[in-house]
Amino acid sequence: MRVIYAFIRSTFHLTYIYRLDFWARLISVLILMYATFSLWNILYTQNPGAFGMTRAQMTTYGVLGMMLAPMLESASFVQFYIGEQVREGTLEMDLLKPLQFIFHMFSRHLGLFVVLLLLQGLPAFIFAALFLEFRMPATFELGLLFTLSFFLGYLIYFAISLLVGLLSIVTLKIDSYAWAYFSLVRFASGQLVPLWMFPPALAAFVAVLPFKDVYFVPMSIYIGAADGQIGRLILSQAAWAVGLYVGVQLFWLRVQRRITVQGG
Amino acid sequence: MLESLRLYPKFLAIAVRSRMQYRSDFLVGLFGVLILNFVNLALIYVLIDRFQALAGWAFWEIVMLYAIWLTSHSVYAVFFWHLSRLEEDILHGRLDQFLVRPCSALVQFLGREINYYGAADVIFAVAAFSLAYTNLELDWSGLHWAYYGLALLAGLAIETSISWIIGSIAFWSGRSRAIYNVQMRFAMLCQQYPLDIFGLWYRIFVTGFLPIAFINYFPLTILLGKPGALAVPWLGLLSPLVALALVLLAWSIWKRGLAGYTSSGS
Questions:
Q1: Can you give the pLDDT at residue B266?
Q2: How far is A13 from B159, CA to CA, in rounded Å?
Q3: Handedness of CA A27, A32, A33, A35 (dihedral sign)
Q4: What are the C-alpha distances in Å from A5 to residues A33, A70, A72, A73, B1?
Q5: B54 — phi, psi (to 5°)?
Q6: I want to staple A62 with a disulfide (CB 3.0 to 4.6 A). Which of A24, A36, A228, B96 is the partner?
């Protein structure tokens, strides 16, 4: 707990130093929320009730996808962090720290998550509630289940990114693929368009990947589109999370043996 | 100035050679750009496939909107993208080296870098445009094509000038990259979505204040004979004038900034 708190504090300081970038990112989120709101607003004014959803449900879905993005995307920073340590040759500094490496990575990025939640998520939420007809979940329980599912989504995305980052120690350099990779993630996660609107073949393919558990599952729980199957969805998220962390640990044990520190 | 311009191709040739050191990175980058564009359009396809049209725009019309933006953007990205990163040179005092040589600082700055990821965008844009043209069963006259060519040039000039203006702000503020990133958000939304889906204030903003709607949206309303989101059907014809005004504005801001430039002292 103390470790996590320390990382939260140092991230706050960094945000203060780079406050212009922070404002730019917040404004970008507001613009994106407004754009997705407009998009669903038009589509549902054209075809009210399409796919059994109301206009308010779908605009809320769209706005929520953009609102959650800063927090969820911060999970993916771990792959760049590791990539940079490898490039700069400073990974051993992290290995020397009296912290288990995976736990260290997690606390570092959880600090960022908390800061972003307070400084980007909260203002975005207030803006959306005031100007974009953003709705609260139908019931309090739904809100709690969403929160749980959202956090599981974060854990899953963090584990995937950690795997990609560890992969960069062994072979692959992600940097040049990053754009393409993130656009595929956005697509397969249902951040913009929910899975039930995909053509059936594509939906079936995307459903076996874990990316849907990052955005789509918590977001459909939030708008009440998953009623009746929430338990199953959250269990499947938990299974992915556990499975991915076992994978991360096993992979890390292998990678650790391969790291050789060059005498310098 | 003419002497400087004669040197520009030579600077570019050097930039290309230094970039060619990283050939595999280049190929992967090209591939990435193609996937990125493909995914963008796939999302719009899924939406329009399910909802028939988007505010009166059919799928292939939006592909054309996207392609026109991407064509001028890709040329901008190849030759002028580093204007948006002017702040780095200003902050680190790297502009000094350009000022002591007997050649236009602008030409030296522009000639220093070439970003050929944009090349993949060109391929994608041309392919998307041809497909859209065929699927919309268009049959443009010579006048249409001439205007299309002019609109692409205007689009290139508009995006370059906006980037140049924002980059030059760093002469006074030291930082401008963040402003550029916000601008890019607006630009990418204009690339993918017709202005008709947005509210009145947004439409006015991207027409009058940050005139990115003149890059692709307004010219395309002319080419397709659509009324346009501000109900002024001839607005697209102003695109070249907007471009000219922006270039002049950018040029004068750059000159003022450079005249007051005092290096970073480090």
A1: 53
A2: 35
A3: positive
A4: 30, 20, 19, 21, 58
A5: -125, 105
A6: A36
Terminal alpha carbon distance of chain A = 35
Q: Is the dihedral angle over the CA atoms A106, A111, A115, A117 positive or is it negative?
A: positive
Contact B182 A31 (CB under 8 A): yes
Amino acid residing at B219? P
Q: Which residues from A are below 8 Å from B58, CB to CB? A: none
B104, pLDDT greater than 90? no
CB under 8 A, 24+ apart: contacts of A155-159:
A155/A241, A155/A245, A156/A210, A156/A213, A156/A214, A156/A237, A156/A240, A156/A241, A156/A244, A157/A72, A157/A75, A157/A76, A157/A214, A158/A75, A158/A78, A158/A106, A158/A109, A159/A241, A159/A244, A159/A245, A159/A247, A159/A248
Distance CA B12, CA B232 (A): 42
pLDDT of residue A16: 73
How far apart, in whole angstroms, are the C-alpha atoms of residue B170 and residue B162?
Answer: 13
More confident site: A10 or A33: A33
DSSP 8-class letter at B54: B
Tell me the pLDDT band of A189, cut-offs 50, 70 and 90.
very high
Kindly state the DSSP code that residue B57 receives in the 8-state scheme: B
User: Per mean pLDDT, which range of A212-216, B119-123, B145-149 is the poorest?
Assistant: B119-123
> Which positions 20-39 of B are in contact with A (Cβ < 8 Å)?
25, 28-29, 31-33, 35-36, 39
Asked if B36's CB is within 8 angstroms of A38's CB, the reply is no
Distance CA A89, CA A102 (A): 18
Determine whether the interchain pair B46/A193 forms a contact, defined as Cβ–Cβ distance below 8 Å. Answer: yes
Interface residue A186 vs chain B (CB under 8 A)? yes
Q: What is the mean pLDDT of chain B?
A: 87
Q: List the 197-216 stretch of B: residues with Cβ below 8 A of A.
A: 197-199, 202
CB contact under 8 A, A43 and B51: yes
pTM of whole model > 0.90?
no
Token pair of B227 as six digits: 């009324």
Give the model's confidence band at A101: pLDDT under 50 very low, under 70 low, under 90 confident, else very high.
confident
Tell me how far CA of residue A11 lies from CA of A75, A89, A112, A144, in angstroms: 14, 23, 6, 27
Which residue's entry shows tokens 């870098």?
Answer: B113
Place A238 in a pLDDT band, splitting at 50, 70 and 90: very high
B138 vs A93: which has the higher pLDDT: B138
* Whole-number CA gyration radius for chain B: 19
Distance CA A155, CA B51 (A): 34
* Of residues A34, A178, A187, nearest to B39 (C-beta): A187
